[in-house]
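Please predict the structure of the following assembly.
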Amino acid sequence: MTAELVRGQNHPLSQARLEIRVSAGTPIVAGATLGDEQGRIDGVEWVAHPGAPTLPGLEVSRQAAADHRLAVDLDAMPEAVHRVSVLLALPTGVAGPTRFGAVRAPVVAVTGLDGTEVVSYTIAGLEAESAVVALELYRRQGAWKVRAIGQGYAGGLADLLTDQGLAQAHQLAGGINEAVAQGMARSLPAPPPRADGDRTRQAAAPALGPDQGGPAPQSGPGPVPPQPTSPYGTQAPGGPGQPTPQPNSPYDLQTPGVSGQPAPQTSYQGGTGAADSAQPSAPTSGGSINYSHPRRQNAAPPPPPTAPPAQPGQPAQPVAGDATGWSMDERLYNQVWGMFEDLARTTAAYRSAVDFADSRMDKELDQVLSDPRSRIGGQGDAAREEAQAKHAQLVNQARAALDRDIAQLTAEAEVVEPALPPAYARWDNPVWHGYRVPMEIPMALRLGDLHLPESDRLRIPMLVRLPLERGLWIDSGRSGSLDGSFTDSHDLRRLAMETAVAHAARLLAVYPAGEFTVHVIDPAGSGAQPLAPLVQTGVLAAPPALGAAGVAEALARLTERVDLVQMAVRGGAPDSLPPGFDTAEQLLIVNDFPHGFDDRAVNQLRYLADEGPAVGVHLMMVADREEAAGYGPLLDPLWRSLLRLTPVPDDHLADPWVGHAWTYEPSLVPSGSQVLQQVLTQVAAARAKRW
Amino acid sequence: MTKGQAISLQKNDGGSLTAVRMGLGWQAAPRRGLFGSRTREVDLDASAVLFADKQPIDVVFFRHLVSDDGSVRHTGDNLVGGVGQGGDDEAILVDLARVPVHIDQIVFTVNSFTGQTFQEVQDAFCRLVDETNGQELARYTLAGGGSYTAQIMAKVHRSGPGWTMTALGTPANGRTFQDLMPAILPHL
């Protein structure tokens, strides 16, 4: 029988192997500390957290998640451990709630191995706290008991750990937050669920068997064949084959912020809670309720281009738009993400095979050395040659498999690149020369190219969803240079500013007229030359802000805007904004930070970084982190909340599936090309017409 | 087929088969009277362990649904069973043509995560299906298989240019595939 505990209540535990399930409405960090008889933590090695998830008898998960299962084996606890405290904390330094008062009350339950609940406890009444001790398992007269604690700490993990007597509490809390934020910030946002499972061009795609009806709905929306009539058109509640609305729907573009922040999920999380919650089940009730989304396209999408039948034994000819989607825009987006995943995975297979071949050869060579017989005659040499031959054979096989896949992806890239719309295309794509100001916001924007060392010539477009979910940081620091060739920091800064202008121009161009506004802070005027295309064409909201006064004025304006929109949204009256209020998305480019910033301005900037993205105000920092080092750790959350991009190729971005380090290259305007001026001139003209 | 029997996944005409699916199904635990919330759910889990030369390289299970190379995919964790009504509740799809070249064996296992033995679970079965034609290659009825919480079901391994499947059907005990590793090693 489950005991519902209240704060302070305890309950005996009859089993030693337990599971502690945590359920919160938002991604949180779960950890545990081991305490001695006085309840004190002896050292950092007594804390299980995402950076060090396993201790004897205890395992926690490596990342922030809305649901956790902590495995506990009390028999395996060291003798000296008398108390196990289960702690929860909100991740810091990433977008999301910062106080438990703002989220659903977390529920923790202790269950046996068979899933039967022993106790459960809802941690209610939390307010400003950002870390909380949820439960405590403790020894009492040779037996273990559990007690509901619910002690919160407004100062977060550092205060919590200090309270338990850990001397290095602050360093460890920083380390934990760093580990969690790194996990979130380093990875690209998770891709859309891959609705088509296996893409048709994979010749060996496992076809669903005739008796496969069962698991298919569970694994996500099945492949949706283009139908003459839309499943939405009939107003009938959907069956299992109906495409379920995805959390990150491309058609929700007009409501930035409301859709919330999709947590970057790794595939490891997909198991229990995350996958299920991401797929709302299809409505099952009858009646005449109209389930169709007011803004969602109701017409059936045009059928996707079909690949001509492949020659036997040959891979199918690649076709642009060969993926599912309701529009060509969405199909190409899904196709590009599919290519990204395929390249990540085939490279993982190659690297794994080569690693294995290396370690096997090392082992065999060691054996040859330690075998006394190998010293006689040519036996040792023969064995050595054999080991090397085996190594070469396996590596060659792996390389052949990789080359086959790369050739196929390259052929696909060759048909996809020319078919991309401006938002997804490189600046040298002819599509930019036929540019027209769009009527709708595209699904995503290309920020550059990604590639891996094994396939140097195959470039994957790096597409990020629009509206932006977080700000951008163009790193002008020397660390941003891959090979150190840019030793001239002046050159690097200019290049960083040019990169920023290219990104900003792209954003201005792909939004409909007047729906994207760019502000610039350039305190020393050092970015004047790269900024010229934006200034001369007149697409900026105001001339770049100069000097400390300019900085203060520009920040005050945007801060006020964020306040206003927040108040309206919180008050449930988004219509009450003053007439004439500019509803466009806002981007603030900050050059030369922290030049021209006083403490007040730095605080305003942090506020914009934290609160802005939810109300459509984004930062683009063009900065060298070292130059702001004087502010100490105060600014760490700012840098972490931004997506770091570099003006020169740099391998710092991880894919969400395997975590390879991908080399990022920004999308820059070819030198001598007038395309940027031409495009911005059209943008300016369309804006002028609108006002 | 019987325990230990090997089936070559080569077609008669010489072409080799390219995809297999491991399916696992069981009936949901019956609702318990008035207090339905106290029904002791049954959670069986299917896993596939990829070996290169007897070393585990990768594993596909409910916390890692796709092998890093993408060739082995789990359709997702089912915590209560009974969804398929006689069909598969969990499935693992293996695209044999895309399995990395150094992987030479893939072992399929079933575990009772919630701890009930197979005796206590109704209508539990696991099977291996040739995905290209839907033909069942091996099927085990787990229910009535004794008081075990796990089974090492079958392995597919490279032989010549293609793959061969060997039915193992060895009972074991353990909550996840990790508990089974010592029991798996003798079968490699």
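The radius of gyration of chain B is 16 Å. Residues 6-27+41-187 of chain B form a domain with the Lipoxygenase-1 fold (CATH 2.60.60.30).
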